[in-house]
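Researcher: Re-running this chain for the archive, since the previous output was lost when a drive failed. Same request as before.
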Amino acid sequence: MRRTCKIYMKDMEFFGFIGCLPEEKENGQRFIVNCEIELARAGGAVSDQLKDTVNYAEVYDLIKEKTESARYDLIERLADELATSVLYSSYLISAVTVRVSKPDAPIDGKFAAMEAEVSVSRE
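Model: Regenerated structure tokens:
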């Protein structure tokens, strides 16, 4: 039997200073981050022990700190930084996909959000 396990962290909202325009860098805006973590093995699913999985509270803190302190022009750059940092935060993680949404992008028009998604893996 082969087991796979993914952890989904959805719609985490943070305030940050990512953008090309001076007002984005100065005033900041909100960002929505989604993270999909693929585990190398489904140990916690079988053992029911936190030591056998990824602690998503710790991953949340990592994403929050990096998003709120980052000073990039592009949301793609932030998504890459977050995905890489999460991947290397635990040897149990085999792949990560991060999507950064910018719902208040300074564009004159009607839209839900502008988004960038980056996937990284150990392979």
